[in-house]
Specification:
heterodimer; A: mainly alpha; 4 helices; elongated; disordered C terminus; B: mainly alpha; disordered N terminus
Chain lengths: 91, 168
C-alpha cells in the first residue's frame, strides 16, 4: 500500500508547493484596474457587437425563415384530414 | 376549399430557436476548446497579449463576459424552442432543429470572425505567430461550411409537417 500512497502524497505535496498552485494575490488589483478602467464600457460594447448582430439575424429568421427555406411542396398543417372532410362535404 | 381550416406550417420559430441555441453552444464550444483548453483566441488578446499573468487574467475576465453573453443566447433559444413546441403550426422536425443548430454555430464563427478578427481586430484565433491571417481564414471557412450544412438540413426538413407529439 505504501508503494502507491507515498508517491501519491509526495506528488500532491510537490504540486501544492509549486508556484502555480498559489493564487496571485498581488496581481488581483492590477487585473481589476486593467478590466474596470475608462475603457470598460467601450470594450463591453465591442464584445456585444457581434452577438447583437447574431441576435438580430436570429430574430429575423423567426419571421423570414419560411421564405428562405420555402419548399415547393408547400407543406400544410396536420389538420389536412379535417380539411379533406370539409372539402368532401362542401361545407 | 375552406381557407380558414388550412394552415401553412411555420418553420421560423423552430429555425430561430435552433439558431439562437447554435450561436450559444458554438460560443461555449469556442470558449471551452479554444480559450480554455488550447489557451488561444482570448477576447482581448490583441490589446492585452496574454504573455504575463496579469494580462492572461484580464483576458480571462473578458472571456467570462463573453460566456455570460452566449449563455443568454442559449437561454433565449431554449425559451423559443419551448414556445415552438406549444404551437401546432410549427413542425417538430429533427432535421430543421439540427440544421438550425449547425447553422447557428456557423453564423457565430462567420459573424464573430468578420467583426472581431477582421474589422475590429480585438483578437485573432491564434496570436502566437506573425501571420495570423491563415488561422482567421480557417475559422471563417468553418463558419461557411457549417452554414451550408445547416442550410441543407433545414431544406431537407422543410417538408416535415407533424407538430410536437405527433411525430412518429
Amino acid at each position: 500500500m505504501s508503494k502507491t500512497v507515498v508517491p501519491a502524497l509526495a506528488a500532491t505535496a510537490l504540486f501544492l508547493s509549486s508556484g502555480a498552485a498559489w493564487a496571485c494575490t498581488s496581481c488581483r488589483p492590477l487585473v481589476k484596474a486593467g478590466v474596470y478602467d475608462q475603457n470598460f464600457f467601450g470594450n463591453l460594447l465591442l464584445m456585444v457587437l457581434p452577438l447583437a448582430v447574431l441576435a438580430f439575424i436570429g430574430a429575423g429568421l423567426y419571421f423570414f425563415a419560411d421564405r428562405l427555406f420555402a419548399s415547393p411542396l408547400a407543406p400544410h398543417a396536420p389538420t389536412t384530414r379535417s380539411t379533406g372532410l370539409l372539402e368532401s362535404t362542401h361545407i | 376549399m375552406n381557407r380558414d381550416t388550412q394552415h401553412t406550417m411555420q418553420c421560423g420559430p423552430l429555425v430561430s430557436s435552433g439558431v439562437f441555441m447554435g450561436i450559444g453552444l458554438g460560443g461555449f464550444l469556442d470558449g471551452i476548446v479554444f480559450h480554455q483548453i488550447l489557451q488561444v483566441h482570448n477576447m482581448l488578446s490583441n490589446r492585452f497579449p496574454p504573455d504575463t499573468l496579469v494580462n492572461a487574467k484580464i483576458n480571462m475576465t473578458w472571456d467570462g463576459y463573453f460566456h455570460a453573453m452566449v449563455w443568454v443566447m442559449t437561454a433565449v433559444g431554449l425559451y423559443l424552442l419551448f414556445r415552438a413546441g406549444q404551437r401546432r403550426d410549427v413542425p417538430w422536425s429533427g432535421k430543421i432543429l439540427l440544421g438550425s443548430l449547425i447553422g447557428g454555430w456557423g453564423l457565430f464563427n462567420l459573424v464573430e470572425g468578420i467583426i472581431d478578427h477582421q474589422i475590429l481586430g480585438i483578437h485573432h484565433v491564434y496570436e502566437y505567430t506573425t501571420n495570423k491571417l491563415p488561422f482567421d481564414l480557417m475559422f471563417l471557412a468553418s463558419g461557411v461550411i457549417f452554414l451550408l450544412i445547416g442550410w441543407m438540413l433545414i431544406r431537407a426538413g422543410s417538408n416535415d409537417t407533424a407538430p410536437r407529439g405527433e411525430v412518429s
